[in-house]
Design a protein that fits this description.
Strand order of the largest sheet: 3-2-1-4-5
Bound molecules: 6-O-phosphono-beta-D-fructofuranose
Number of strands: 13
Shape: elongated
Structural class: alpha/beta
Order of helices and strands: EHEEHEHEHEHEHEEEHEHEEHH
Radius of gyration: 22 Å
Number of helices: 10
């Protein structure tokens, strides 16, 4: 069998661990030939496909390294028009690819699903620091990102205490609040604001004022998709034809401007940005990514094409890509994490 492997969408820690596990499993047990596709689906879109053979040695020594040795793209869209789609179909035929293991987020899964129309069969592996892929309760990369944000919150706290400031820390996560929520809890944030709960400015002002009198500093952790009740989403930029056309970011600054006039303390914002996606994966993410890569190889070898690896109730399994394409897993409003946060006095920006 000839199997392509690609990484699509934003990178995240653990991608190399998947590439390593899927390649080694296929070579070891399946006597497959594995081709690494450069820069996500972009590597299949040009007149000359960009691929390289992946040998055992090629994928050795990369388990612990962040990023992806294959490169990635979160703007390449092979479904953008008929000509591009046909070119991808020709490339797949010319390369003799039986299946492509597509490691990516919901955008990549939607593309993988759409490419079935030109005869490209995919097996999906969910990745994202946002932890927002349906049927996957933990995507690799998330644990590493939570650790990075938590560490950052600790660092912000010591300077916030010294200067008696209100410090706003903006996290990534798109339209899901997992990263802000779990990091905020782990990093002892006083206020956590999520895309799932529109915040009420007055409640935030109240908590900050109370703390001005007592602790004299406040830490606010806000997910980039959060917004004030009655206001619209803060969009940083729009990218035409991209499977992920809206880039978020800037909510921390928006909140600072709204909050400052009401408080004595100085309000400052830190946007953590891409430090959250970079760096080497934690041991947890290395193990999870290796399990996902191994399971993807099993799906290929057992002919379960068109499926994505999943993690549900702590068990690795799979689901049809068609069932998860174009869906997102956000924080449910009845999540026990939310009620626990309220019970221990964390403000979620609710009235
Ligand atoms: O989906 C992963 C992610 O890091 C999001 O949390 C974030 O909104 C987005 O990618 C940022 O993408 P870019 O690197 O293109 O700015």
């Amino acid at each position: 069998m000839r199997v392509g492997v690609l990484t699509g969408g934003g990178d995240c820690p653990g991608l190399n661990a998947v590439i390593r596990a899927v390649t080694k499993s296929l070579i070891n047990h399946g006597q497959c030939e594995v081709l690494g596709i450069a820069d996500g689906f972009e590597g299949l879109m040009g007149a000359q496909p960009r691929v390289k053979s992946l040998s055992w040695d090629e994928v050795s020594g990369i388990l612990h390294i962040g990023g992806t040795i294959l490169g990635t793209s979160n703007s390449a869209n092979p479904l953008r028009d008929a000509a591009t789609l046909e070119q991808v179909g020709r490339n797949v035929q010319q390369l003799g690819l039986d299946v492509v293991v597509a490691i990516g987020g919901d955008g990549t899964m939607s593309l993988a699903h759409g490419l079935a129309q030109v005869g490209l069969q995919c097996v999906g592996v969910p990745k994202t620091i946002d932890n927002d892929i349906a049927s996957c309760e933990r995507s690799f990369g998330f644990d590493t990102a939570v650790a990075t944000v938590t560490e950052s919150l600790r660092r912000i706290e010591s300077t916030a205490m010294s200067h008696h400031r209100v410090m706003i820390v903006e996290t990534m996560g798109r339209h899901a609040g997992w990263l802000a929520l779990e990091s905020g809890i782990a990093g002892a944030a006083d206020i956590i604001l999520l895309p799932e709960i529109d915040y009420d400015l007055k409640s935030i002002i109240k908590v900050c004022k109370d703390r001005e009198e007592r602790q004299r500093y406040t830490i606010i952790c806000i997910g980039e998709g959060a917004k004030e009740s009655g206001q619209s989403l803060t969009v940083r930029e729009r990218i035409e034809h991209s499977p992920d056309p809206v880039r978020l970011g800037g909510v921390g600054h928006v909140l600072r401007e709204r909050l400052q006039p009401h408080l004595k303390s100085e309000v400052r914002t830190t946007v953590l940005g891409h430090v959250q996606r970079g760096g080497d994966p934690t041991p947890y993410d290395r193990v999870l990514a290796t399990q996902f890569g191994h399971h993807a190889a099993q799906l290929v070898l057992s002919g379960q094409l068109g499926h994505m690896v999943t993690l549900q109730y702590g068990r690795i399994g799979s689901v049809a890509i068609a069932d998860v394409a174009n869906t997102q897993r956000t924080v449910p409003l009845d999540s026990p994490l939310l009620s626990m946060a309220r019970d221990i006095g964390i403000c979620l920006g609710e009235v």
